[in-house]
Amino acid sequence: MDYTEELFHHLQDGIIIMDGKRQIRKINKAAEKLMGWHVGDVVPFCSYCETRKLAAHEERCYLIANQGKVPYFESKMPRMGEYLINVEMSNALIYEADDGDKHYLLVMRDVTVKNQQEAARLSKKMLHHLTEAKEAEHKRLSQELHDGVGQSLYSVAIAMDNLSMAIDDEQLAAYIQEVRDEVGKAMEDVKFYSQSLRPKSLDQLGLLPTIETLVKSLRQKRVDLHITVVSNCYDRLSPVAEINLYRVVQEALHNIMKYAEATEVQIIFEKDRFGLQLIIQDNGIGFNVEEEKEGLGLLHMGERISQLKGKTVIQSVVGEGTKITAYIPKNELIREGD
Predict the structure, then answer these.
(1) Looking at 198, 219, 242, which one is the last position of a domain?
(2) 16 lies in which domain range?
(3) pLDDT of residue 82
(4) 3, 39, 224, 289: which has the highest count of C-beta atoms within 10 A?
(5) What's any one GO cellular component for it (predicted)?
(6) Strand bridging mode 14-19 / 321-329
């Protein structure tokens, strides 16, 4: 039994057999659907052939001009009665008669989706590099604040302490103490900003201890907010996973503190053999996800999880609270050398 005809029409790629004048002699269903052409139609010139410079007596069709020896070619082709679409083409000379009549096999594939996927991949890659550069700069600034400004303020504070002990004038001593208190506040601010930019403990101790430190500092600011951290994951993760997960938790807690009016927050890290799940949920006022999904905070959280090839789901009910769930596959969590 000959299945040639059935195979011809069931192939996903568009298949066309055309003569030297580009008239279609045979066409499969995929090509008809893709381009809207039929047997007897003339294959139009693609956007490249329409404008390319020709040598004397050269055939305008690039594929025919090269006698079917072009293995791969991408251009825009006019679809019948509509618009230009991106197509990937290859061709071969399959028949040549003694009288010079030639038939060419033309294979076509719509690459619009492929190009969109490639653009998305490049965009994601660029975002990944920008995030890395941003985090590297945060780390540098954090170090500068701690080792530069922080140490200078510490030296000033020590000098003022020594000065106040050497002064007998009570009024002057009180004034120096006031200034010393302000220097102490400035030191605390520098420490806070340094920690916010890039916590040292993230590189030294890992994700969970750093989040515990963050939560401890927030508890001091909001004594009415009860935050619990639950985890079965105490291993060190890859640096890119640790910083991105930390930023997601940091952003979520910032939003909760600013908008949620919550009294209870739970942060859960649950690791299984396939990856890691992060859940952040509160009992706050909630919001309409559809209306707020384009908010920068939510977008940034999604982008960071996406960089780890993970998925993010945000659920919220007005008056009942919000739940953020993220899942990161195992391969993105492994540190080099583990």
Answers:
(1) 198
(2) 4-110
(3) 67
(4) 289
(5) membrane
(6) unpaired
